[in-house]
Specification:
The protein is of the alpha+beta class and 401 residues long. Among the domains are: 54-63 and 320-381, conserved putative lor/sdh protein from methanococcus maripaludis s2 fold (Beta Barrel), CATH 2.40.420.20; 68-74 and 237-319, Elongation Factor Tu (Ef-tu), domain 3, CATH 2.40.30.170; 111-198. 31% of the residues lie in helices and 38% in strands. It contains four helices and 19 strands. It is elongated. It starts with a helix and ends in a 20-residue tail after the last strand. Residues 379-401 are annotated as: Disordered. This is Macrolide export protein MacA. It is found in: Cell envelope. One of its GO terms (molecular function) is efflux transmembrane transporter activity.
Amino acid sequence: MLQRADSDWTMEGKAGSPARRRRWPLVLAVALLAAGAAYYTYGGNTQEAAPVLQTARVETGDIETSVTAIAKMQPKTYVDVGTQVSGQLRTIRPDVGDVVKKDDLLAEIDPTVYQTRVAGDRASLDNLRAQLAQAEAQLTLDRLRNERAQQLLKNQSGSKDAADAAEATERISEAKIDALKAQIAQTQATLEGDLANLGYTKIYAPIDGTVVSITAREGGTLNANQSAPIVLRIADLQTMTVTAQVAEGDIPKITVGTPAYFSTLGLPDRRWRGQVRQIEPTPTIVNDVVLYNVLIDVPNEDLTLMTDMTAQVFFRLGEAKGVPLVPTPAVRTARDGTQSVRVVTDKGPQDRVIKTGLSNRSVTQVIEGLQPGDTVIIGSGAPAAGPRPGTDRPRMPPRLG
């Protein structure tokens, strides 16, 4: 009977029995219900999420506007000590880093040549003075002879020729004396010049300071006829000058007296303060960028600042303390110069015209239009991540296999 029943079921299936035809509507209905439930659960009931507004509160704080620049520093006062005479450099007394006082002996050049010139000048001067004494004695004699000749002529005891010759001889003696006096003056001047050159063989410190470099070497020959040879440099390190290179777009904002502060690479947390002493009118052009040198003097009592250090300088253009501040990206500027922000209110975002003061890249001072505690809109972002509407928990990924 089992075999028969199987045979009958098989035959009925092949022929499309009424029972099988009744099952298809039921199966189709179940499938449609499952698809609808899945659509509702996984997306059919979702809504487009609104963009998230980026907001910020108006807060009270301090603001500073500034112009920044990179700078190098040099001593404010320094002297390149050279030589005015040629010769062999015999000695250099200080070393680099030594502190010297004004009129301290720094170096000596071999003085032999100049000592010889001075000795020759003095000998020539003595010779001329001896000749002058002889000429003056001869003049005294010629005057006496001339007086006797003139007296004889007056008494008609002598000839006129003798009187004229005596007078001419006296004048010649006077001229010789004048010439000798001129030679003596010339030789005296030569002697003074050679004495000065002899003095230049000893090089003295022109100022108080520190020896920061020595360019010459002992035993070397210095030729002062072609150029002024530099022996060493003395600098006053108690006051340094910071030379900042400011771009042409920022230079109109800076004037003499503008306060500034800077820090160095080695001490980024320490600030030195000063003010602009000078703005050099001639620019430096680097890669087609026009830069102007701005000079700032700062005290350096502890000698922390050194030559050629690199510094980042901030020129303070303005500052305000305890004022309402709004993020700069929230401020919108119209073509007519009017500034406004979007403020979050109970009725939704609203535009509000404001009046601003100081501004930098991060915050802007609000003078009118906003109060501390107001919320402004900076911008809008992507929808917030999270479960889709209509779901109680995050959707789990389908199981595989």
